[in-house]
Amino acid sequence: MKIAVLPGDGIGTEIVAQAMKVLDLLKRDGMKIETEEAAIGGAGYDTAGDPLPEATLKLAKASDAVLLGAVGGPQYDKLDRPLRPERGLLRIRKELNLFANLRPALLYPELASASTLKPEVVAGLDIMIVRELTGDVYFGQPRGIEVRDGQRWGFNTMIYSEAEVRRVAHVAFGIAMKRGRKLCSVEKANVLECSELWKEVVAEVAREYPEVELSTMYVDNAAMQLVRNPKQFDVIVTGNIFGDILSDEASMLSGSIGMLPSASLDEHNKGMYEPIHGSAPDIAGRNLANPLATILSVSMMFKYTFGDQATADRIDNAVKKVIAQSYCTGDIWTEGCKRVSCSEMGDAVVAAM
Ligand code: NAD
């Protein structure tokens, strides 16, 4: 198992160091894991003048999986756009053809009071959103702003090929098979032809997964159902723009940005794994960050790229245990918790494993 480790900027280095403690423990237990570190984002710009240095891309392509911390920081905000840290992230996703973005929204019962929704609505929440990541209105041509008849018009093109829908649908059905076997496809087929095709292709793919119960929902209703009764969902599959919005909405249900991992996969299950949050410059360098989203990203790596459910469960159970033991970093702190630093949280997870 060859893993490219890209800590990035800000808290990236602190949280990835904790995930490395988990990988080191697995190595000591005899797993054949090889890790190699490289720079990305602002760190890439500082060392090689490029947010995605050639050597980093080469390493990522030669690895089975990529573990990423976070990129960005105020010191890079004045750079030309192509040199900004976030561009490195967009480029690596595109270069690796990571078309399926998996974002779980999960709420540990002990953290229910951290959500803005009523505890009974969200306690025990466990949803997986599969968002198509490389197509749709974000990439469709033509696009632009132009003057027609004396006024400006802005336009984009919502477009999907059936092959693009089919491959992300297969990923989503595959995930549903490993979970509660319920898949909800979200679109706007009552208004958009692009969604009509999406719906048809997902229904065709469904015939190959008779064990999975498929439902469909319009995106406006899905946005409403996510706050009304989110526990009705198991896996959701949707296009790029709808997924962008719904996955952010769903992540807020759990109330703690420092807890949520993500995976982006290509068609051979090679993946990039990263927390959903950014580089948190406001707390960087102070050993305050919550490393659990990054550690849970390692768990997703074992589940989806290495097909090793037992190791994924071992990591997930260790995280559940430290939460149950009331260890809390500042972002998830509530009255009565044991407040710990980033590195102490990493140590607690390793001890629990
Ligand atoms: P952010 O996610 O970095 O931080 C938002 C808030 O959440 C901050 O108050 C921060 O302290 C807190 N927070 C985030 N992660 C935390 C953690 N693990 N533990 C405890 N608290 C945590 O978002 P932002 O402030 O909007 O962006 C900061 C920088 O990160 C920007 O340069 C932005 O472009 C970049 N960014 C990068 C990614 C990425 O690398 N994938 C994602 C989003 C933002």
Provide an overview of this structure.
With 353 residues, this protein is of the alpha/beta class. It contains twelve helices and 14 strands. Strands 2-1-3-12-11-4-5-10-8-9 form a ten-stranded mixed beta sheet, sandwiched between helices. The protein starts with a strand and ends with a helix. The mean pLDDT is 95. Nicotinamide-adenine-dinucleotide is lined by residues 11, 15, 70-73, 86, 89, 257-258, 274, 277-283, 289-290, 293, 329, 331.
Mind sketching the topology for me?
Blueprint: E1 2-8, H1 12-28, E2 34-37, H2 42-48, H3 54-62, E3 65-70, H4 85-95, E4 100-106, H5 119-122, E5 126-132, E6 144-148, E7 151-155, H6 162-178, E8 182-187, H7 193-206, E9 213-218, H8 219-228, E10 235-238, H9 240-253, E11 261-265, E12 271-275, H10 292-304, H11 309-324, E13 327-328, E14 338-339, H12 342-352
Parallel strand pairs: 1-2, 1-3, 3-12, 5-10, 8-9, 8-10, 13-14
Antiparallel strand pairs: 4-5, 4-11, 6-7, 11-12
Helix pairs in contact: 1-10, 1-12, 6-7, 8-9, 10-11, 11-12
The protein binds nicotinamide-adenine-dinucleotide.
The site of nicotinamide-adenine-dinucleotide has 23 residues, from helix 4.
Keywords:
353 residues; alpha/beta; ten-stranded mixed beta sheet; two-stranded antiparallel sheet; 14 strands; globular; binds nicotinamide-adenine-dinucleotide
